[in-house]
Amino acid sequence: xxxxxxxxxxxxxxxxxxxxxxxxxxxxxxxxxxxxxxxxxxxxxxxxxxxxxxxxxxxxxxxxxxxxxxxxxxxxxxxxxxxxxxxxxxxxxxxxxxxxxxxxxxxxxxxxxxxxxxxxxxxxxxxxxxxxxxxxxxxxxxxxxxxxxxxxxxxxxxxxxxxxxxxxxxxxxxxxxxxxxxxxxxxxxxxxxxxxxxxxxxxxxxxxxxxxxxxxxxxxxxxxxxxxxxxxxxxxxxxxxxxxxxxxxxxxxxxxxxxxxxxxxxxxxxxxxxxxxxxxxxxxxxxxxxxxxxxxxxxxxxxxxxxxxxxxxxxxxxxxxxxxxxxxxxxxxxxxxxxxxxxxxxxxxxxxxxxxxxxxxxxxxxxxxxxxxxxx
Length: 376
Known about the structure:
Blueprint: H1 13-39, H2 46-66, H3 77-94, E1 96-98, E2 101-107, E3 110-112, H4 114-130, H5 142-156, H6 161-177, H7 182-204, H8 213-221, H9 234-245, H10 257-260, H11 272-304, H12 309-333, H13 351-369
Antiparallel strand pairs: 1-2, 2-3
C-alpha cells in the first residue's frame, strides 16, 4: 500500500484534534456515569478501559483506511452490500439478545453490532450509485430507496428504530447533495412518511407487528412524558431534570445527583449527554457541541474540495451520519425526539459505535488526503 508523502500535507489537523478531544471527553463522562454502579460490583474503570480499547482498535482501522485510495472502493461496493445483508440477516438468527433487542454478535467478552457498521456500507453503496446523475433521474429516484430498504428493514426487525432513522437521514442528505430534483426528493419523503405513519398505526392496533408495542409507546410518549411519569416517560423526565440542574458550570465530576444516585437510566449509553450536562453544565454541553460542529464543518469542507463526485458523496454521507446521530441523541435527552437508543459518537460507551465513528472519520480524511490532482 504505497502512500505518497505529499498527501500528508492535506491531513486535516483540526478535524483530528477535535475527534481526539471528543474521545477524551467521552472517556471522562463514561467514567463518571458508571463509577457509582461499578464501585461496589467490580472495577470502576471497566467501561473506560473498554472505551479506550475500542478507541485504539478504531484508530488502527482509521490509519489502515487512509492507506487505501477511496476510489478503489468503487469495485467493492457489491461485495460490501452483500456482506452487509448477510451480517444483518445472520444476527437475527444467531445474535445475542439484550433488553429485548437482537442486535449483537458475541465475540469473546465483547458484543459487536452489525447495524453500526451497516451505516458505512450504505454510505459507500449510495456514493457509488449516486455519482452518476442518470442513475436517479425521474422515476429512477426510487432506486436509492430500494437499495436502502433491505438493510433498513432487517435493522427494524432487530428492532432498532434509531439506526433506521439515521439510514433515512443519510439517504435524503446524499440525494440532496447529489443534486436530485427537489420535487422528486420531496415526493419520496412524503411517501416515506406516509408509509411510516401507516406502519405505526397498524402496529398500534396490533394489525401488524413490524414495530413493537414499546417502540410505539416511545414514539407517542415523547409528546408528553408526564402522561406516564413513572413508566415510559421516566427516562426523559430524569434526563431533563439532570440537564436543567447542571446550570451554567455544572455540579462537578462525580457530583451529579441524577447520575450518581441512579435516577438516570442508561447513563453511560443512551443518556450520556445528560450526565455531561449535569456535571459540566452549559459550558460542558456547549464545548461538546462545538467540537461536533468543528467535525461537521471540516468534514463538509473536505467534501466540497473532493476531486470527484464519488469522494464528495463519501465524505458528505459520513458527515450526515454524525449529524443525524447528534441531533437524535441530544434531541431525545431534551425530550424533543423519541427515545430510540441511538449512541452519541465518540461519547457513548460502546465498541461498535466507537469503531464505526472512527472508520467514518477515516473515510473523510481519506477523501481529504487525495483532494490534490495526481502528479504523473
